[in-house]
Every structure is written in C-alpha cells, then in structure tokens.
Amino acid sequence: MSIELNDSEIWPPHYTIRRSLKARRTFLQISPTHGLEIVIPERQRSVNIPKILNEKRRWIEKILGLQPKNFPFHIKSIARPHLIECQAISETWKIAYQGSNLTTAIKLINMDSEKTLLLTGNVEDFSTCQKILIKWLIKKAKIHLAPWLQYLSALTKLEFNRMIIRGQSTLWGSCNAKKIISLNYKLLFLPRSLAEHVLLHELCHTKYLNHSQDFWQLFKNLDPHCIENKKFLKTAEHYFPDWLAVL
Fold it and tell me: What is the mean predicted confidence (pLDDT) over 66-89?
C-alpha cells in the first residue's frame, strides 16, 4: 500500500506501509532505499496512521528535511559526525578523521584523555564508519549501564541475573522470565532521567513480568514521574544524531 503526496501538500510526506511477521508493534523507519515506511505487525488489523505520523512528526521532518520542492520524497544529505553527545552519562566525544589509501581498513583509535575518537583509513566509506561508531557505543553502554543497573537493583532490592546490550529498532529494553535484562545502547543519548526510567521499568519486570496494576504501582513508587516519562519516550528519537537515524 502506498500513499502519494500532491505537490501542493505539506503533510504528510510520501510513505509506504509494510506488514511484517517479525514486528511486535507498529513503528516507523527511514532509509534512502525505501524512504519513510510504516511497519505493522502482520496480525494487527486496526492502525491509526494519521495519529502515528503526527506523534512522530518532529522526528520525520528532522530526517527527511521536508521542503515542498522535494516532494514526494527526499532524504537530506547526512554529514559525517564530528561529535557524540551521551547525555545519560554526561559525556561528549569529538570524532576526528584521518584519511589514507582507499584500500586501507578503517580503524578507531580511542583517545580517552582528549575525549576524542580518531577514525583512520578509508574514512570516505561512511557506512563502515557508522558501523564502527555503533560498536563503540555498544561497548560504552556496557561499561556504563551495567554498574548503573546494578546500583538501582541494590537500591530497589529488585534482582536481575544478567544484562545484555542490543540495538533494537523498536524497544528501549526488555526483561524475560530468567531475569535477563536487555537494554538499547541508544539510551546513552537520552537525558539521564529518561534513561533511568527505562532501567527502573525493566527492573520492575523482574518482579512482575507484565503491565498489571501491581506492576504500575511498584513502578510509580520508584519513579513518581513514570507516566510523564513514558510519554516523553514516544518522541525521544529527536535526541538521536542524524547519522544514527538514517541507517
């Protein structure tokens, strides 16, 4: 299914709808190949498309760089990143590039004392640079989120067995029956209060593996602003840098 946009219209932009057997909930994604896609679980029948688009409008406009002359579809050029701001852990890293022969493999040099990441080699290969930076972010998330989760676990007396870091496209975190908590490395980009909200949410699932009234009562006791924070998370993509959003 495809919705075409007339030149005179400003909103919504051109998009396609794709049904997925793997998707657990409806989400949006943008790529240079397919443009703006609304991905819907195969079994889900009722979807309020206008509401979804309006809720994500700020993020969509940021990535697409909407201008009437660019319709029906346009992906704005994404420049190489020169800064990584990890609000959750109060760290800002500079990114520097040192180009060489096009056949030279790209390497990342971590200059801790200067809070700088130096990429050397064929740095014109943006896709590979992107993947290397994401690997660095995943490692960074393991280093910082693990002790943070341990601290909150001891504070709340909600124990977990193991923590893993992933790059889920639709989830901030999850917890299974074995009390294994999975966290998204993108939490690093959120304000500290929102990131902690997610960590507490998953810790609450170690006691209640559902969203029952008991779960929410426990969650509210630990995070009095959990309802408000939950709403903020729905539009939290605007904290992501442009180079990370267009994959």
Answer: 66
